[in-house]
Amino acid sequence: MPLIQLVIILVVVGVILWVINSYIPMQDTIKKILNAVVVISVIIWLLSVFGIIGSLQGIHIGK
Predict the structure, then answer these.
(1) How far apart are CA 43 and CA 1, in angstroms?
(2) CA 4 to CA 30: how far, in whole Å?
(3) Model's pTM, two decimal places?
(4) What's the first-to-final CA gap in the chain, in angstroms?
């Protein structure tokens, strides 16, 4: 994945998260949980993209 595409994806995710936090009314606890989930997901995705962790295709949630 080219670096410019990676940066564009990160900027889009950041803008979407900012819009959700700014313009959608919700409780602070829900915002914190949403932010944490998005940040953790992006970190795991970045680690996968750079090859630090293995492919995420082998991970199954549930049965």
Answers:
(1) 16
(2) 32
(3) 0.78
(4) 31
- Reported as a single tens digit per residue, the pLDDT across 9-63 is 999 999 999 999 999 999 999 999 999 999 999 998 898 888 888 766 676 777 7
Q: Look at residue 23 in the predicted model and tell me its pLDDT.
A: 94
pLDDT for residue 7: 95
Tokens, residue 21: 């936090």
Q: Which of 40, 34, 37, 6 is nearest to 21 (CA)?
A: 34
Mapped onto helix, strand or coil, the DSSP state of residue 19 is helix
Q: Of all residues in the chain, what percent are helix, strand and coil, respectively (each to 5)?
A: 75, 0, 25
* Torsion angles phi and psi, residue 34, rounded to 5: -60, -45
Q: How many Å apart are CA 18 and CA 15, to the nearest integer? A: 5
